[in-house]
């Protein structure tokens, strides 16, 4: 059942630009794609109960890799994209090794500090990182004819492709033996290590994988927007990503996806309200948390369970004269 | 493809005009939508709020008369979007505007204006920015991009004036926030100061919004300058820095701008603020037209009047004048007309210039008002004419 | 630092990351400005008013936001962010674009071995130390204080001992709001009052709390001093830009070497 729904959804998404040519809607879809990748990659590590605020930093690393390779060295984007994922992954290894020694809120803070150091370093060295000016005119992917400034269809497919690959891989991981280990770490890492699980090792792998995909998201961001600067990859970006996950729901991978989609679309709907946009957004966050503390997915599951339960009750109660 | 797009845009504009025109009392009026991308939340919100209020009023005045184009009467409806001073938000706003068929953009802040200028150029949208951003924002490759508020450019007028008014000033030190605006200001101001025969003794950066200005102040005082140019420093950083400098025994002059002088004095304290030179700041209305603006603000929003409103008052009128001159609402034609429009505004003769710097006439040149803090209050001292040949 | 104390109390005891805390600081600074400057009433009265405003908002947060979420850390975090967006945005609409200022009570600077400190800041530091001592005494030597620590250590056991955790939570919120109010008054007199003023000190407060060690009042005070001095020293020696990177690098190092903070215990 779920498989069919997902297949239909993917086909619909693939066909989307055939029906909709509105550049603004495609733009929003592309941004949603980047946000979904960020949310899902943060969620993977979030399974273990660790929230990394360094995701913006890794995204920046990926974006910077793409910008430097394609603009300064004129490498094709398709070479730069995998490198932009691998390099943050490599950097994540020692960073994760050190920062995973601490737990809970302390981990949050160490990764936050890491993100600040990354943007601080990029901001300090004007050559080659562009300093606070950032880097502009980052070339689009090849062939350039497909990726024009005003032609969004190719970018849409690029972003969709990244989303599908990311979600596919992370879904596999979360459902594998390794994923079960991650869930068990959330329940209690002492317990997990007492049955012979290499807890630090597993956390490190999850940390590296999430940095890898954050880097890829950064790469797509860089080539789509064509402009990156320390003003873009801030602490707030990491906070937003966490908001996507929590509002969507932690329980399954659908949570971060739904959260990213809804919370990208909703502020867009309120864009016309100008100065009241943030007010509306804030109130929506408050009420969604109060009404759906388990996130949208949590609320949906409870609703679905209750409906199934009611249906069963109804079925049992239905035959008249039954004993 | 392009043809179909343009048709759609024209249709879109037409439909919008129809929709709004039908609601308006005068059915004959046609409406132009001007998208305004300004910061309405976050630390830059005070500027954004002042801009929204001022721009709204400017178009009220313009629309009362209307803009005659080839027998049709046009009015302009500004639409305000919150860019939160985040580049990605600014891009989203422009995407939305383009999709809605809006062909005119006003954009505030270089971080929001530079990332969109490529897009607006390609879509042939007339972009009017109140931003720094150097040749990345205006130049021959961006024929529809204009700078409607001089920012770092004002230094071209200010430094020659300082030289004649305060001949004792020889050594200048610069202080700027460590971000794009700060770097742009710092580079340009050092270059202009040197051209005018000053010695640059130092150049210090601080983190914007930093709570502690004593470190940067200590370094600056050590350089022993006659004048410290605060450049791109804005908001409460100005007051805190001036306070720290004076407390550390700095006796020289302070030059700053982009300020509503009132809160600067309050944060710095009247003693520390005394004698500060304010560039591109008009402390009190000097002419009847300036007075009129102040009276309107005070009547509607109450005192105090933010002096920044003076600086962004004129461009909507220049925009309207350019449409009249072009006799067309095609942004390309309006842009052409705008390049040569001369408007008599609240700061004298205003026109787009600075070809010598940007390679194309694209940056507004006008008189630069100067004020100084006297007895704890800002007071007007002079109006500097724009230097010839820039 | 005062703000950090309030955060410590809430964070250490309730495990609640109160993102609205920064907005409490901002609102109470506005209250101080309104009563003390705009209406021209005496300053102590203005600070009292601010404390009352902050306490009311604090109770409202506890009752309507955090209690229904059972003090779940992530959910509270998000609710806090949402509420603070909404409050900040509404404040811009209400208070307008002009920042306000609260006059300093003590102008001037003191030279402490090449590093300069404004007297107003020293006053703030002094007030902070006094309040910290009071808070320490309260937590360790009074009945409600002990109850608070009991709830922190083991909620169920505390309930068995006849402690009502809800009333403990309420009083913790009120005290931390009051600290935010005094912090707001101090901050407003140094930096001016505007709707964004709460955002940055809040982040700093979290950092201070964690370096000091959660729930440790002495740790918070020392860490606050340490961060303040480190900021000044690196800024003076290296210039503002590098200091920014170095500060965070130091923070990373401290946490990696002493994962519980300088004076913290296991959580």
Structural commentary:
The complex is a heterotrimer of chains A (323), B (390) and C (267). Chain A has one domain. The two termini of chain A are 34 Å apart. Chain A is mainly alpha-helical and 323 residues long. Helix content of chain A is 75%, strand content 1%. The model of chain A has no long low-confidence stretch (mean pLDDT 87). Chain B folds into two domains: 2-148 and 312-346, Rossmann fold; 153-284 and 371-384, Response regulator (Rossmann fold), CATH 3.40.50. With 390 residues, chain B is α/β, with parallel strands linked by helices. In chain B, strands 8-7-9-10-11-15-16 form a seven-stranded mixed β-sheet, sandwiched between helices. In chain B, strands 2-3-1-4-5-6 form a six-stranded mixed β-sheet, with helices on both faces. Mean pLDDT of chain B is 87; it is low at 1-27. In chain B, α13 packs across α14. Chain C is mainly α and 267 residues long. Chain C has one domain. Chain C has eleven helices and two strands. In chain C, α1 crosses α9 (199-212), α1 packs across α10 and α10 (217-238) packs antiparallel against α11. At the A-C interface, α5, α11 and α13 of A face α4, α9 and α11 of C.
In short:
The complex is a heterotrimer of chains A (323), B (390) and C (267). Chain B has helices at residues 2-23, 45-65, 87-99, 110-122, 155-165, 180-195, 214-222, 236-247, 261-268, 270-273, 288-301, 308-311, 315-326, 331-340, 355-358; strands at 29-38, 67-69, 72-82, 104-108, 126-130, 145-147, 171-177, 199-206, 227-229, 253-256, 277-279, 342-345, 348-353, 363-365, 368-374, 377-384.
